[in-house]
Design a protein that fits this description.
Length: 375
């Protein structure tokens, strides 16, 4: 069986610095590249990506067994190169085998079938969808939701251009993309559930969820995002944005797992029922009148944890950016938990939406225009 191949070359950048930052970011999410001669080799699903940097030139070459896995790996490499090289995605061109799809192969349409409130600040929405098998993975349980603008009852979905890159609708038809955890899924029955955090300073996801009703449609693509590695002793910690992920992780752990679960929420009414191993202690932390992201409650609780010095241990933390930075460094430098022993992810950043955070705080002209159009 032949392999599919494609490659890109990006010139005029500080290639080694860009590649170091890119690989460092991927390593934080447990994608570790191996050095082979003058290149770095990264396995991504069933594909292989080869990065190389020399002078002002960065190259990436992808080999994959199927056209679909080639597309998925190219999208991952494309978005990360654009982000860390500070290039508009449209100027990064790929040569070689091109996808033969009319839409991104991971894309699905989801239709709302039911909504109900799990707590005062969390709404669960059940969606119907066809061919959801690729999303029913415990190891990759995040997805990207493509949300129509308010009032858009006839969404236009992404297509693929002649270059094989996704083309998204613009103007009033544009779609807001946000990352969410798949809380529950049954691909054979054709449904998935997603929990949305509702808050006063609502972004596109919370804003859409607050008005969602049966029959409305959104798009989804993915999956991605690493989960916690099951270990004999575990620390799971998050604010409410990571609560759906903790709930899914905990209910799939072996009963004999020991450890601690720390969850920050607004108040007692926001505590929800969780299924956790008998050997794990669950502790809820209440911010009360403090706004999300302004409290050190979760950070302080994590730093006070008595993490045992045992071989088989793992820490999974999802929090606001500053908390994630502090905790990641503490786990590494003080506790001695190296990369394979921890996954600390900034799910959000105070004062920034998701897209601005992913650009490292940079507001592109495209982003500013989109924000202006949305006003």
């Amino acid at each position: 069986m032949r392999n599919f191949e494609t490659h890109t070359v990006v010139n005029g950048i500080e290639a080694e610095s860009v590649l170091d930052a890119l690989l460092g970011h991927l390593a934080e999410h447990e994608f570790v590249a191996l050095r082979v001669d003058d290149a770095w080799i990264l396995d991504y699903e069933s594909a292989q990506i080869k990065f190389a940097a020399k002078g002002d030139t960065l190259t990436a070459r992808i080999t994959a067994p199927t056209s679909e896995s080639l597309f998925d790996a190219r999208m991952m490499a494309h978005h990360h190169i654009a982000e860390f090289a500070n290039r508009e995605q449209e100027v990064i061109a790929w040569e070689g085998d091109q996808p033969v799809f009319t839409r991104p192969p991971a894309f699905r349409v989801l239709t709302v079938t039911a909504t109900y409130d799990v707590s005062p600040h969390m709404r669960r929405i059940r969606f119907h969808g066809d061919d959801l098998g690729r999303y029913e993975r415990q190891e990759d349980f995040h997805c990207k939701l493509l949300l129509p603008r308010p009032g858009n009852q006839a969404p236009e979905w992404p297509t693929l251009g002649p270059d094989g890159m996704p083309r998204f609708p613009t103007g009033e038809k544009r779609l807001d993309m946000r990352t969410y955890t798949i809380r529950r899924i049954d691909s054979k029955a054709g449904w998935m559930e997603i929990d949305f955090v509702l808050h006063d300073d609502a972004g596109p996801g919370a804003d859409w969820a607050a008005q969602a009703c049966p029959g409305q449609q959104i798009g989804v693509t993915g999956p991605g995002g690493r989960t916690a590695r099951p270990s004999a002793w575990m620390l799971l910690a998050a604010d409410e944005t990571g609560l759906p992920a903790i709930a899914r992780i905990a209910e799939n752990l072996p009963h004999e797992t020991r450890g601690e679960i720390l969850i920050e929420v607004q108040g007692p009414a926001d505590e929800i029922s969780l299924t956790v191993p008998g050997g794990m202690q669950l502790r809820w932390l209440h911010r009360n009148d403090q706004a999300p992201g302004t409290s050190t409650l979760l950070r302080d609780a994590i730093l006070a944890s008595a993490i045992p010095d045992v071989e088989d241990r793992f820490a999974w933390v999802a929090a606001e950016f500053s908390t994630a930075q502090t905790v990641r460094k503490w786990l590494r430098d003080t506790v001695g938990m190296i990369g394979k022993d921890q996954l600390v992810v900034a799910y959000w950043r105070l004062g920034m939406d998701e897209m601005t955070m992913k650009r490292g705080g940079r507001r592109t002209e495209e982003g500013e225009a989109a924000e202006k159009a949305a006003e």
